[in-house]
Amino acid sequence: MKINLVLGHQLGFPPVKGGGVENLNWMLAKEYARKGHAVVAYSRLRPGLARTEVDEQGIRHVRIRGYDLHPNLWLDHLNALRYGLRLWPALEAADVTTFHTPFSFFLRHKKRLGICTHTIHRTPKWIVRFYSAFDRLYCGSDAVIQQALAIYPRLRNLKRIYNCIAVLPDPPPFRKRDGVGLTLMYVGRFVPDKGLQALIEGFHRSLAEFPDNRLVTVGPQLDEDGADSRFFSAMGAYIAANHLDKKIELLPPVYDRSKLDALVGAADIVCVPTITGETFSMAILEAMAQGKPILTSDFPPMLEAIDDRVTGYVTRRGDPESVAEAVRCFSRLGPGLEEMSRAAFRKVQECFSADRIADEYLADFRSLILQRTLIRQGH
After folding, report:
1. Helix, strand or coil for residue 53?
2. Are the CB atoms for 117 and 137 separated by under 8 Å?
3. What is 2-164+353-376's CATH topology?
4. Which of 227, 264, 286, 330 could crosslink 190 through cysteines, CB 3.0-4.6 Å?
5. To 10 degrees, what angle do helices 354-376 and 20-34 make?
6. What does residue 30 show for φ and ψ, rounded to 5 degrees?
7. Tens place of pLDDT for every residue, the chain, 379 residues?
């Protein structure tokens, strides 16, 4: 089958820096190609990348002039529309066209694109009704399906397929603690909806009982990189005012994958205390693939990834005291931390591997193609 994979206007593909959507689709594209399907990826033209090429995976790339993320949401949407207009003439005939970009609801009208699907990558908004005519509207969790239906109950094309991660056949070796406390790590944009204020304040509270622990954040900190500069400054001021500079370290983004993996590998716990905005966290999957227990929130999509007190701890959204109690529980685990690490790896391996999730997509593509064929034949 020929699969068009249509990506957004901001980041290059294959991904060379952050971008959960791009990294997710890079894994899926490689799996589709490995399984013998023709994949054409449409993405932003970036310096050093050819306008058209076939890579070593066998994926054909078509690149279109795009735009950097704009801090003004309306201008960013305007740029997405401009990008979409440039995409229109480039889109080729295919069996399946899977969209991961705004304004796909007008791009799908181009003829001969085959089955057209769109994937929701953020918390659903009012615009979700515009996607009701797609053959399939994919959601990253059951919680997102319920959120979409609450906005537009007439949706009949929803299907939950979880995000995925490349998983090694064997768990990584457990990082033995050296008796100097735990290192907790957050990886991602520095924005309020990631729950960072509760994480920082809750970690601060836990230090009274466990003063040897450390918290490290890694990721974009400025507006132009998709973060919130004002919020970052406020949290930096909180850390300075409470003399936490040696306990909480705010690192800039690390785009070298091997270096970022090494940083995560050196941590004991990965924190994803999201308040809103996620459909199913890639950060959680990436950490579990490294055998890291997770500190997360009770934001509904998170509950489908983490088993409380088995693969991590679930806190109340935006509640510093709940975060503090989770840190205390981790700190008291002792040898139990290794079993939690093993459980996290087993779950991601059994439920969220790229190979497994790619098969789910491919099976649904085939089912949708068959349904359309039968309808055309009058069955």
Report:
1. strand
2. yes
3. Rossmann fold (3.40.50)
4. 227
5. 70
6. -65, -40
7. 999 999 999 988 998 776 688 989 999 999 999 999 999 999 999 998 999 999 999 999 999 999 998 878 899 999 999 999 999 999 999 999 999 999 999 999 999 999 999 999 988 999 999 999 999 999 999 999 999 999 999 999 999 999 999 998 888 888 766 668 999 999 999 999 999 999 999 999 999 999 999 999 999 999 888 899 999 999 999 999 999 999 999 999 998 888 988 999 999 999 999 998 888 888 899 999 999 999 999 999 999 999 999 999 999 999 999 999 999 999 999 889 999 999 999 999 999 999 999 999 999 999 999 999 988 887 6
Q: At what angle do helices 282-289 and 20-34 cross, to 10 degrees?
A: 60
Q: How far apart are CA 49 and CA 16, in angstroms?
A: 11
The alpha carbon dihedral of 58, 64, 68, 70 has a sign of: negative
Tokens of 170: 């064997």
State residue 51's pLDDT score: 96
Q: List, in order, residues 6 or more apart from 332 with CB less than 8 Å away.
A: none
Q: Is 161 left (phi over 0), alpha (psi -120 to 50) or beta?
A: beta
**Backbone phi and psi for residue 152, each to the nearest 5 degrees, phi listed first:** -145, 90
Domain with CATH 3.40.50.2000 in the chain: 2-164+353-376, 183-351
Token pair, residue 228, equals: 């919130």
* Lookup: tokens for 31: 């799996």
Give dist(CA 139, CA 119) in Å, integer: 6
Global pTM reads: 0.89
Q: Are 372 and 45 in contact (CB under 8 A)?
A: no
CA–CA gap between residue 48 and residue 344 (Å, rounded): 38
> What does the angle CA 220 – CA 17 – CA 22 come to, to the nearest 5 degrees?
110
pLDDT given for residue 287 in this prediction: 94
Measured CA to CA, the distance from residue 292 to residue 172 in angstroms comes to 10
d(CA 56, CA 25): 16
Looking at the chain, how many residues does it have? 379
Its CATH architecture, for the domain 183-351, is 3-Layer(aba) Sandwich (3.40)
Q: Burial level of 375, CB count in 10 A (0-12/13-18/19+)?
A: exposed
